[in-house]
Amino acid sequence: MSGRLKNSWKKIFYVSLATGIVLTGILMAISGCKKAAGKTYTVGIVNPNLGDKLITQGFLEGMQKHGYLEGKNITYIASENPQTMDADIITMVARKVDLIFTVTTPATRAAQKVSEGTKIPIVFAMYDPVESRVVKSLLDHGRNITGIKIRGSTPIALEWLLKIVPNIKQIYVPVAFDTKAAEQSIKDVKDFISGKNIKLIISEVNTAEELKASLSSIPRGVDAIFIPHSIIVLSNMKTVIESAVKMKLPVVSAGHAQFKEGVVVSYGEDQLRTGSQASRLADSILKGTPPANLPVETADFFLGINLKTAQAIGLTVPNDILQQADHIVR
What we know:
Blueprint: H1 3-38, E1 41-46, H2 53-65, E2 74-79, H3 85-94, E3 99-103, H4 105-114, E4 122-126, E5 145-149, H5 154-164, E6 170-175, H6 180-193, E7 199-204, H7 208-215, E8 224-227, H8 231-234, H9 237-246, E9 251-253, E10 265-269, H10 271-286, E11 297-298, E12 301-306, H11 307-312, H12 319-322, E13 327-329
Parallel strand pairs: 1-2, 1-3, 3-4, 4-5, 5-11, 6-7, 6-8, 8-9, 9-10, 12-13
Antiparallel strand pairs: 10-12
């Protein structure tokens, strides 16, 4: 056989071999895609705060956009009652769910405690995971957990309030210290007014009835009401707004969604977007990325103004502030 003929056969052999390898890789990839597409997941959702229900909604909508269809390739187990939260999480862990999504500090800490020793990943949306000792740091948490930090908007929310009502001397804060977030929220307010001629009046309430009674006896001289990250307060916003309107007091919140409920000035996370942001992390984890490789993210903050409530209490919001608002209720 001539050298030219031998070289030709060698070329044919190597080309065939390379083609076979490529085809094998393609077939394996297709097979893997079919396996991934055919997998079904079970995800637990723990949110004991009615005031944060839009976070859950944003998470579910986000998961659907990522291709997770309830009843087809994903099943959700929901827990919304604070009284049964621990038992619900125990059930989720016993069922070996693929992931737990938690909203609020208590829910996250409970899920972390119950799932300890398992490989069940947790994605959270909570006030401050570092100060609450859920993670070591935002970048290097080194655990089977990651999520969205919500803390950071309180000082700017209060700045917006002072721009609209510059002569504030007293701020009333109803709060139930039912979570670490409530404590941290009050600390943020105290840090902000430090050095300013503003008095903080804190009214501790532990039930909806106590909140209602407290609001009906707000002392004279109060210029505004601040809404902290407190489950009892956030779950009873209708009561707060009704009292505030009756007393002609502006309400400010560091939770963005509250402007829709009547809060005059809100600066904070958009709950739907926070939930969607968390769904992206959950999708990455379900596709195989370890939570430890996904740094904790901070929620995006937005300014909301409720002109309807402002008009009801006789408050004028300057046009330059309205032009900077992300959302306005007229």
